Amino acid sequence: MRTRHTVLVFSGLDPSGGAGISADIEAIGAMSAHALPVVTALTVQDNDNVFAVNPVDANILRRQAEVLIDKIAISAVKIGIVGNRANAQAIAEIISRLRKRQPDLPVVLDTVLASGHGDALSEDHPNHTLRPLLGLATLVAPNLIEAERLCEGIQTVEAQAQALMSSGAKHVLIKGGHGAEDHDVVNRWITEGEGHAWTWQRLPGAFHGSGCTLASAVAGLLAQGRPMREALTRAQQYAHKALETSYHIAPGQRIPNRHVGMGE
Amino acid sequence: MRTRHTVLVFSGLDPSGGAGISADIEAIGAMSAHALPVVTALTVQDNDNVFAVNPVDANILRRQAEVLIDKIAISAVKIGIVGNRANAQAIAEIISRLRKRQPDLPVVLDTVLASGHGDALSEDHPNHTLRPLLGLATLVAPNLIEAERLCEGIQTVEAQAQALMSSGAKHVLIKGGHGAEDHDVVNRWITEGEGHAWTWQRLPGAFHGSGCTLASAVAGLLAQGRPMREALTRAQQYAHKALETSYHIAPGQRIPNRHVGMGE
């Protein structure tokens, strides 16, 4: 009897199908896990720009998650945009309930503060919104811009990672995709007594949903019990391949091809 | 430069990831097309039962679709549950706008009236909700139960198909999955001057999202210009394989493995 491990996903809907819940469903499926998608916000966007973010009622979100966790074993949680503070609070409560029976439940927090293009994705200030979730995160995965915003006044990547760990996150992955390096993208993993930096060739052009793809792939692998180092390595290999084989649906940002490297 | 044809999808969110927008995104991707997901309703459900259907505000849905069609070429439209009459009306208006520039735009209408388990999926009576959409459908794809409900008082499958064609649908696929046959599932395609019946071995157990998987695969193939007969044949082969390799996430209905048979 075939079974798949599940990832409970809290994420925004991106009607362009590049980022958000589309990226989560496809990347988690590509890792041979199964996404349970709970939508936090209905965004209005194309493959380049975000025009509006409509948060979903926290009561709907809570009820959806409760029905799932009452019947289906949850192997990991992945959080993208949350929409507003009420949703962040509801998600934190659900995770706390799950952690009572599964203290080691992996939680991946992708601190999406803006679209690839720079449009804001939350009603409230991210530091207020994300605070209850940071303390529950197994892995927090900001890009360089997000790390700076989350850790105002802290200059170096190492110090930013330490600050995020002080807030409760066990592992930090700081993604270099939006950095200044011309030819390389450096992703830095920082945790207590361990760490690594991966260097990837920077690919030409811009992509819609690369961060969601990477974070969801990590969650899909952690759901299957992979250790963090292996999950981070394999997820980056997958995400890089998805970008290399990305496709156009219109002028502007390309869509990662998340159908590469399927299965075990 | 790689490009993919797009399918504009109007569909419900199923947090169990079995049916609705998850099925659409995965099946359309598996056909090498790209889904543009617009959510019509946020359902509360697990892999067996539907507990609530929360329609999305028609203004959000309309705005999401407008932003997409202003920038991205649409190669097909797929409609699942619509949530209520206001959403059906908004979807009909969007299709009418698209048809002005693309008179042949394929529209696949999956007349989902209830979950596999029999729970209702719309606030309003389906005949009122679906009327404006039936007239715009290239293909309407009810199962036996839905065909009976849509054509009250009409007994035979052939007469039901004729009635749906009188309402404006060009092609009808009546799916036998919920029929009385023990060993076989017969899917009947009826259209003006053409038609075919496919017989598939009935697989043991129950599935969550088999109808959405089939209809979305058809839409993904029509988006790439495949003729109806070929699209119906290939989509059924794909859907059958997805059911054969389906997996459990909890006791009860299994999830079709939509990651089979990827690529061209």
What does this structure look like?
The structure is a homodimer of 264-residue chains. With 264 residues, chain A is of the alpha/beta class. Chain A has a single domain (6-244), classed as Ribokinase (UDP-N-acetylmuramoyl-L-alanine:D-glutamate ligase, 3-Layer(aba) Sandwich), CATH 3.40.1190. In chain A, 37% of the residues lie in helices and 21% in strands. The first copy, chain A, is built from eight helices and nine strands. Chain A has a nine-stranded mixed beta sheet with strand order 3-2-1-4-5-6-7-8-9, with helices on both faces. In chain A, helix 3 (85-101) links the parallel strand 4 (76-79) and strand 5. Chain A is globular. Chains A and B meet through helix 1, strand 2, strand 3 and helix 2 of A and helix 1, strand 2, strand 3 and helix 2 of B.
Radius of gyration of chain A over alpha carbons? 17 Å
CATH superfamily of chain A: Ribokinase
Looking at the structure, what is the overall shape of chain A?
Answer: globular
Estimated helix fraction of chain A: 25-40%
> Overall mean pLDDT score of chain A?
93
The end-to-end distance of chain A, rounded to whole angstroms, is 17 Å
- Indicate how many domains the architecture of chain A comprises: 1
- Low-confidence sequence ranges of chain A: none
